[in-house]
Amino acid sequence: MASVMFTDCSSSTAAAALLLPSSRYRVRHSVLHSLWSMPLQFAPVKPILLRTTATISHASASPSIVTADLERAFSTNTSLYSTAMAAETSAKIIDGKSIAKQIRDEITVEISRMKDTVGVVPGLAVILVGDRKDSATYVRNKKKACESVGINSYEVHLPEDSTEQEVLTHISGFNDDPSVHGILVQLPLPSHMNEQNILNSVCIEKDVDGFHPLNIGRLAMRGREPLFVSCTPKGCIELLHRYGVDIKGRRAVVIGRSNIVGTPAALLLQREDATVSVVHSRTTNPEEITRQADIIIAAVGQANMVRGSWIKPGAVVIDVGINPVEDAKSAKGYCLVGDVCYEEACKIASAITPVPGGVGPMTIAMLLSNTLTSAKRMHNYK
Ligand SMILES: Nc1nc2c(c(=O)[nH]1)N[C@@H](CN(C=O)c1ccc(C(=O)N[C@@H](CCC(=O)O)C(=O)O)cc1)CN2
């Protein structure tokens, strides 16, 4: 369970203790509050280059992105570049919801082609343990997304007090089942379970979440290829590609160093030839480091932590955070905000993901993409 913050960026660290579904990738607020909220001077610098919308619509037509990890959605040698918008104009919105829809459409076509050609239908097994409402919602959305593209889904829902061994037994069954091409265990797991043991037991050929240490290890090594890249970081990079953001040679800052987002996001950016810094709860002067970045990926789980003054004019901002904040105007009494103070950032960045509707939908789209990749690989289908 997570606390609810206030929507106003200036009071972002004042938590009101209401009980709500947890935000993702949560870190200890008390540590972050003191270490991350020191004000810094604003220093204007050069904006990053973005391709124009003409290139983006070209990108939309390409189906190639779903066929291989990190494959480029479109050629990078187009000369349609423009300088980013000036600081006083609003940032371009990086629309994860619509890109995710495009990707689902591309996957639907691929799956139908594979079924018609070799008679194989990809299968995804999902294991959910416990009664967290947010996890149940994510699993439901994953099942719906599978249905929408033609992937078979198999769900095991275990009670909160299940044993680790029960989870391992189900994983072992799915590891041996040829109709299952992808296995995922919804996180977080109940605290009495050893997450590491459980994630290690998913066979790497079916590790569509990309959480197995061998897949993460391969991602970290030059000359090695992971079989799968975890879905949220992969979705972040996919958004940058599809919006024509140059990564090569750029300075990137990843805020947060979790195993499932921050660390793989930093590794992916490095593979794309960015110069990468990771800012975390023990970083001194996080604002100063972040303000040098052309590309920022914020994945820390603290509402509105990244203020406008942290952002270099023209930078591209990918906000992974999904944090509930108090909102009297909403029927639910809360709304979702990111780790970045959107109202400030959109005046300074050249492009930014919204929350909701940014990275979140991409996580599920990338899961579908990984499941398709897995089925193709197992059946040697191009
Ligand atoms: N096994 C895994 N566990 C978890 C993962 C994961 O990738 N694999 N990631 C998160 C949760 N998650 C998927 O599992 C996820 C979170 C959020 C969204 C999403 O679409 N968010 C929407 C807003 C949703 C809302 O209204 O509540 C958005 O940002 O627009 C999708 C998937 C932790 N666990």
TrEMBL record:
The protein's name: Uncharacterized protein
Lineage start: Eukaryota, Viridiplantae, Streptophyta, Embryophyta, Tracheophyta
